[in-house]
């Protein structure tokens, strides 16, 4: 028998990058919030610099809900289904921001207007065939204030490249205008990163230090980064990585309006006969609870957002909540972030320390920053070179075809070259397509008996062409810096990923989008959805800051329009 | 595809190399009873480039096994030592105690791999006898290497699953045991980190430490030598993930990195 709890104003499902930010503007407006989180609080004591625990064994000390719900994947509706060994995300207060790379980019202006800008510049025929891409319901200028808010509330380090229209070549000259500089200067450089930046300038490109939600100096009383080398899938032992667990959530708790409930595994969003949500049902240690609320904000990860909506069936929504237009799960895509390039240098580059957010970017070949008139694709990629190495991964490196992968000859190769390789990270424009979608797996279930999410998706010609072009540019860059061998790595599949978009896309048209321009369901007025699941294009950079800016914006809209949403 | 002028390494190259390996200095493999620290080698010849005497263990002390049988343990020791050999350049997986790491983990985080190890060892032994005419441990080193190449490339017969997957698993775990934190029972005396030139776990890194050309002195610290960190589980069983019931089991897809 489920225990019915005291009603609250808003229940937030998931206190990660999105939900963990949304709670603050709500609490500050005097709205009572219950934040349900499947994981627990973790502290700096839990963040040992241990490659086996963090990178090999996926944080065995944390709540492993996500690991029991790994989505299945098939490249098309007629292909075989496979299941990855692990889920890339984690459950905790703060979610995957505990161990993410913390690269905190704003999208570029083009990313909001891919369809109209492509049509204007090259003609409508240049929008890739089969793509379901739409322009966002607003442009960068609408989101600028929210980006700014989140950058200062949480703490982002970086170098502005466009301050109110004035270009600063130390930053990204292709970024849209910003009202203020970053609250902190960028993370420091390294000897190798200096070398790469000089090589990029030699090619006539515009290298710059990328933005990170990591303290480059003491900020809000928290320490500066220690550059210890275990940031990649590791938590910060000095609280210099600025997730919501350190910033927005504690601040919301201080107002007395936020109640955090950990180890709460939400199993359904509940509705009444009028088609409004009434709250959620969750399970903790086998015991069931009902949390009534006037508004529900769904802010789990992309796969779980679609899955929970499809699992929440009712008389008003027989095909899943907010799915009477059949749009839940549509417009899905995994960011084309594979296909890096690995280079071998004839000298040690001293990359044993640092972090993935400590690096140098080139945006000359991203978005529509170069002329595509004579090309047969749109978009591009952000080239990123960083200082990141740990011993097991270093020993597991490829050998550029020079030796086998074990034995005496291999050992000699590794002894010489363990600190001589570098792998660039290239994030590429990725679009939604007709045949790429999420639904429920017909056979695979989680331990509670609920179907897991199924991904049906594959990269298309446009992503593959962007891949080939950006890898060629990256090889050119490495060779200019003195690399003696390079290897272009495969793009991979559209299986479970840290950058998963769509499924509950945002847009004005209810026929093709799940949520409206404010992040509230077209079909269920008191249901909001937060996360990259509302994003319709990826841009060529990490989604988290955009997710957080959108979360703040949806929460602020709710606070300002409380009566309209709740009546 | 490798963007490199050098051709890839073919199986023929591997076999040629295996034949040549017989000329190299090898460590006699003496099967030992579990718990009896008798596996010894004569140390590494000092060619001036080898490891300093204080890092070249005169004897490798084997720990009591926790999960493998004595004969499985002997096989694993031999395979690990062929994957990362001990040679004139210094210690390898044997001195790092990679096999000890694997044996211990098979009762915890790697428990799900235990049946694959048991079946794989049995198949390897059968294949060695049928194809090379003797027990694996009694074959000359070049034959041991060529047997492992057959397993690695999938040419070996008599395996219930994929021989290549078995080899890849043992190699992956050997790397973890040699280059992971010593807390888990491998990387003994930090020989794995010294092999790579990894200067060790630090909690604070200075700007000077990240310049080109600096030579950092290895500090030989485990993560858990810093008292602030909650210890990971080295032995206890950790949550086992559900398998994909009716879904065909596949090698884990590469999970994209990034945040």
What does this entry look like structurally?
The complex is a heterodimer of chains A (567) and B (259). In chain A, strands 1, 2, 3, 9, 10, 11, 12 and 22 form an 8-stranded mixed beta sheet that branches. Helix content of chain A is 22%, strand content 18%. Chain A has 2 domains: 1-102 and 105-155 and 242-326 and 500-567, FAD/NAD(P)-binding domain, CATH 3.50.50; 161-230 and 336-429 and 459-492. Chain A has 567 residues and is of the alpha/beta class. In chain A, strand 4 (72-74) and strand 5 form a beta hairpin. In chain A, helix 1 packs parallel to helix 6, helix 1 packs parallel to helix 11 (544-560) and helix 4 packs across helix 11. Chain A has helices at residues 19-28, 51-56, 114-122, 140-155, 191-202, 248-254, 302-311, 391-395, 408-417, 461-480, 544-560, 562-566, and strands at residues 3-4, 8-13, 33-36, 72-74, 82-83, 162-163, 166-167, 208-209, 258-261, 265-271, 277-284, 287-298, 333-334, 341-344, 359-362, 381-386, 421-428, 437-445, 451-456, 485-488, 500-501, 527-529. Chain B is mostly helical and 259 residues long. Chain B is built from 8 helices and 1 strand; from the N terminus they run E-H-H-H-H-H-H-H-H. Chain B has helices at residues 11-21, 70-83, 93-96, 98-105, 114-132, 141-153, 163-179, 191-196; one strand at residues 2-3. The longest helix of chain B has 19 residues, at 114-132.
Overall pLDDT of chain B: 78
The second-level CATH architecture of the largest domain in chain A is: 3-Layer(bba) Sandwich
Note the gap between the termini of chain A.
30 Å
Shape of chain A: globular
Helical proportion of chain A?
Answer: 10-25%
* Tally of distinct domains of chain A: 2
- Nearest-angstrom radius of gyration of chain B? 20 Å
Mean pLDDT over the residues of chain A? 97
Number of helices of chain A: 12
User: What overall form of chain B do the CA principal axes indicate?
Assistant: elongated
Unreliable spans of chain A = none
Name the chain pair whose interface involves the most residues. A-B, 103 and 83 residues
The structure class of chain B reads mainly alpha
Oligomer: heterodimer
Gap from first CA to last CA of chain B: 26 Å
What proportion of the residues of chain A form beta strands (DSSP E)? 15-25%
- Helix tally of chain B equals 8
Sheet of most strands of chain A: 8 strands, mixed
């Amino acid at each position: 028998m489920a225990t019915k709890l005291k009603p609250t104003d808003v229940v937030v499902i998931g206190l990660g990058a999105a939900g963990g930010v949304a709670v603050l503007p709500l609490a500050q407006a005097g709205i009572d919030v219950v934040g349900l989180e499947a994981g627990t609080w973790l502290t700096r004591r839990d963040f040992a610099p241990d490659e086996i625990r963090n990178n090999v064994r996926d944080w065995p000390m944390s709540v492993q809900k996500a690991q029991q719900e790994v989505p299945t994947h098939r490249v098309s509706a007629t292909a075989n289904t496979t299941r990855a060994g692990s889920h890339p995300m984690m459950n905790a207060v703060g979610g995957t921001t505990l161990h993410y790379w913390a690269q905190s980019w704003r999208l570029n202006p083009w990313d909001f207007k891919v369809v109209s800008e492509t049509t204007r510049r090259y003609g409508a025929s240049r929008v890739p065939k089969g793509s379901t891409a739409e322009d966002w319901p607003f442009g960068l200028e609408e989101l600028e204030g929210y980006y700014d808010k989140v950058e200062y509330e949480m703490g982002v380090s970086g170098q502005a490249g466009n301050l109110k229209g004035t270009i600063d070549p130390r930053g990204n000259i292709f970024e849209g205008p910003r009202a203020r500089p970053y609250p902190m200067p960028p993370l420091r450089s390294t000897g190798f990163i200096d070398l790469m930046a000089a090589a990029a300038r030699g090619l006539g490109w515009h290298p710059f230090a990328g933005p990170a939600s990591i303290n480059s100096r003491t900020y809000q009383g928290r320490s500066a980064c220690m550059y210890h080398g275990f940031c990649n899938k590791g938590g910060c032992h000095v609280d210099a990585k600025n997730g919501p667990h350190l910033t927005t959530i504690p601040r919301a708790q201080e107002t007395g309006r936020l109640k955090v409930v950990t180890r709460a595994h939400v199993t359904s969003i509940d509705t009444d006969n009028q088609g409004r949500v009434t709250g959620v049902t969750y399970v903790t240690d086998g015991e069931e609870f009902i949390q009534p609320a006037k508004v529900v904000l769904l802010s789990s990860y992309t796969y779980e957002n679609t899955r929970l909506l499809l699992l929440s069936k009712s008389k008003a929504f027989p095909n899943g909540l907010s799915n009477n237009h059949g749009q839940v799960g549509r417009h899905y895509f995994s960011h084309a972030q594979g296909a890096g390039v690995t280079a071998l240098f004839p000298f040690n580059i001293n990359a044993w320390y640092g972090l993935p957010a400590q690096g140098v970017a080139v945006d000359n070949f991203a978005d529509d920053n170069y002329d595509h008139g004579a090309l047969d694709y749109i978009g591009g990629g952000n080239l990123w070179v960083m200082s990141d190495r740990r011993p097991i991964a270093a020993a597991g490196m490829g050998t550029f075809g020079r030796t086998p992968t074990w034995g005496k000859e291999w050992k000699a190769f590794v002894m010489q070259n363990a600190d001589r390789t570098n792998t660039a990270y290239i994030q590429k424009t990725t679009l939604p397509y007709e045949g790429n979608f999420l639904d429920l797996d017909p056979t695979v279930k989680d331990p509670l008996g609920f179907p897991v999410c199924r991904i049906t998706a594959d990269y298309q010609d446009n992503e593959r062409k962007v891949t080939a072009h950006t890898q060629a540019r990256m090889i050119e860059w490495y060779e200019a810096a003195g690399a003696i061998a390079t290897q272009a790595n495969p793009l991979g599949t559209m299986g479970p990923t840290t950058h998963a978009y769509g499924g509950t896309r945002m847009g004005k048209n209810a026929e093709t989008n799940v949520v409206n321009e404010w992040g509230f369901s077209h079909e269920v007025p008191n249901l909001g959805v937060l996360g990259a699941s509302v994003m319709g294009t990826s841009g060529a950079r990490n989604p988290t800051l955009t997710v957080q800016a959108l979360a703040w914006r949806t929460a602020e809209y709710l606070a300002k329009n409380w009566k309209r949403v709740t009546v | 595809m490798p963007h490199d002028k050098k051709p890839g390494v073919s199986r023929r190259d591997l076999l040629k190399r295996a034949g040549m390996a017989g000329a190299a200095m090898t460590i006699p493999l003496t099967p030992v009873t579990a718990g009896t620290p008798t596996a010894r080698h004569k140390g590494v010849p000092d060619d001036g480039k080898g490891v300093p005497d204080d890092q070249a263990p005169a004897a490798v002390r084997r720990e009591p096994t926790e999960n493998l049988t004595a004969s499985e343990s002997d096989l694993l020791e031999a395979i690990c030592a062929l994957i990362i050999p001990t040679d004139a350049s210094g210690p390898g997986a044997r001195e790092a105690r990679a096999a000890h790491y694997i044996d211990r983990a098979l009762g915890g985080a790697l428990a799900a791999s235990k049946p694959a190890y048991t079946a794989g060892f049995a198949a390897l032994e059968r294949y060695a006898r049928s194809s090379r005419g003797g027990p694996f441990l009694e074959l000359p080193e070049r034959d041991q290497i060529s047997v492992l190449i057959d397993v690695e490339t999938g040419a070996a017969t008599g395996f219930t699953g994929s021989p290549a997957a078995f080899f890849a698993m043992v190699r992956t775990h050997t790397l973890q045991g040699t280059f992971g934190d010593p807390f888990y029972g491998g990387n003994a005396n930090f020989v794995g980190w010294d092999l790579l030139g990894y200067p060790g776990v630090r909690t604070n890194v200075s700007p000077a430490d990240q310049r080109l050309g600096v030579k950092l002195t290895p500090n030989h610290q485990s993560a858990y030598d810093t008292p602030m960190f909650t210890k990971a589980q080295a032995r206890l069983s950790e949550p086992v993930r559900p398998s994909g019931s009716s879904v065909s089991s596949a090698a884990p897809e590469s999970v994209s990195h990034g945040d």
